[in-house]
Write a structure and sequence with these properties.
The chain is α+β, with helices and mostly antiparallel strands. The protein has helices spanning about 5-25, 45-55, 65-70, 100-115, 160-175, and strands at about 75, 80-85, 90-95, 120, 125-135, 135-145, 145-155.
């Protein structure tokens, strides 16, 4: 058994080592790392590869844009959530990086096939689909700017075909 003095010295050394390592990798600081000035591309200068490592895009819509596209007044509720202001109709847009969207696309598509009456694959972006049922619709788009999941619910004037058309118009607005 080692002398007590040696064991105490070892115990005191462990926190100093951990703190030193955290400081070396940038942990333990309350100041966030500054954003990079640019995103590196691959050896060929492919900007699409740079988009794969970029973070999620910002919300692609304003309440005014959503109102125009869906054909009824909508208000922004924050975090890319829009509602009719009456607690009935809603549109939620979730954004993610391209790499995250690419990684979850097949799973989301499979889940949509179980939840919705109709799922149509779209020739838009890298991957896209629109799924609809009686009072709800979902669309997913993965393109060079990121990944977008749109969920529309309780638009009483829309039938499944109306949800599909509206979601396609929303995706067109994102895709430019």
């Amino acid at each position: 058994m080692r002398p007590l003095r040696h064991r105490v010295a070892q115990l005191l050394l462990v926190p100093v080592t951990v703190v030193g390592l955290l400081g070396a990798v940038g942990c333990g600081s309350s100041d966030p790392a500054p954003p990079p000035d640019r995103v590196d591309t691959d050896a060929a200068g492919d900007a699409d590869s740079a988009g794969a490592v970029a973070g999620p895009p910002s919300c692609p819509f304003t309440a005014e844009q959503v109102s125009t596209i869906v054909g009824q007044p909508m208000v922004g509720e924050g975090s890319c959530l829009f509602s009719d202001g009456k607690g009935v109709a809603s549109l939620t847009v979730e954004t993610a990086s391209k790499i995250a969207g690419s990684g979850t696309f097949t799973y989301k598509r499979d889940q949509a096939a179980q939840r919705y009456d109709q799922v149509d694959d779209l020739d838009q972006g890298d991957m896209a689909y629109v799924a609809v049922k009686d009072i709800e619709g979902e669309a997913v788009l993965v393109d060079s700017t990121g990944a977008y999941t749109l969920i529309m619910s309780s638009f009483t004037r829309l039938d499944p075909a109306g949800y599909g058309q509206t979601l396609r118009r929303l995706l067109d607005a994102i895709g430019g």
